[in-house]
UniProtKB/TrEMBL annotation:
Protein name as it appears in the record: Broad specificity phosphatase PhoE
Domain of life: Bacteria
SUPFAM superfamilies the UniProt entry points to: Phosphoglycerate mutase-like (SSF53254)
Gene Ontology CC annotations of this record: cytoplasm
InterPro entries per record: His_Pase_superF_clade-1 (IPR013078), His_PPase_superfam (IPR029033), PGM_Phosphatase (IPR050275)
Taxonomic lineage from the root: Bacteria, Bacillati, Actinomycetota, Actinomycetes, Motilibacterales
GO terms for MF: phosphatase activity
Species the sequence originates in: Motilibacter rhizosphaerae
SMART domains named in the record: PGAM (SM00855)
Segments forming a coiled coil: none
Length: 212
């Protein structure tokens, strides 16, 4: 029988963001109290798994989400910049369909190509760096399990890439809530299936699908 290897792509918990800005890669955004509760829950749930390798984005919210799991499993956190949040030229701004921002002429040049997208890091570039990180994590945990704590868009684009879907999409359709776990399951060298789990479903705030 072929060996089974799992790589769990974990989205971080809720972030303290009272002004509602798109924080992207900006420093200084940490987990909220509810986000820390989510991280503890993830540590308990994933801590029961055979995780032998733990990776996290360098951003504070990902490191803080990974910390309880690292403590539970007795693992060190490998910081990997390849799983960081996607670059976004709207960082530090509030931006949404209902807040009037689409009427500002200054933002129009950034919205010309939603398929790339023109306002941030290209989807294919995100997919390439995420897949490279997954490949290394899978090799490090071969026959066991690895966890990568990342962000909504990178996790979703990686999933779409593995499933052979188009990478451009409506953000409202992403199946990647806060503190969710998207699991890639390999049987030997064959990607056998993709699983999805929401261990913190009862903790999700309204509109929890949005954010990074």
């Amino acid at each position: 029988m072929s060996e089974t290897t799992r790589v769990h792509l974990v989205r971080h918990g809720e972030v303290h963001n009272p002004t509602g800005v798109l924080y992207g890669r900006l420093p200084g955004f940490h987990l909220s109290d509810r986000g820390r509760e989510m991280a503890e829950r993830l540590g308990e749930v994933l801590g029961e798994r055979d995780i032998t390798h733990l990776v996290a984005s360098p951003l504070d919210r990902a490191q803080e989400t990974a910390a309880p799991l690292a403590a539970f499993r007795g693992l060190s956190i490998t910081t990997d910049p390849r799983v960081i949040e996607a670059g976004n030229r709207f960082e530090g701004r509030t931006f949404g369909v209902g807040d009037g921002s689409l009427r500002r002429p200054a933002v129009w040049p950034l919205l010309v190509n939603p398929f790339r997208p023109s306002w941030g890091e290209p989807y294919d570039q995100i997919a390439q760096r995420m897949r490279a990180a997954v490949t290394d994590a899978r090799a490090a945990a071969r026959g066991h399990e690895a966890a990568i704590v990342s962000h909504q868009l990178p996790v979703w684009v990686a999933r779409c890439s593995y499933e052979g879907r188009r990478l451009w999409h409506d953000p409202r359709t992403r199946q990647c809530s806060l503190a969710s776990v998207t699991t890639l399951v390999w049987e030997g060298d064959r990607l056998a299936r993709i699983e999805y789990l929401e261990p913190c479903l009862d903790l999700l705030p309204a509109k929890a699908g949005y954010g990074a």
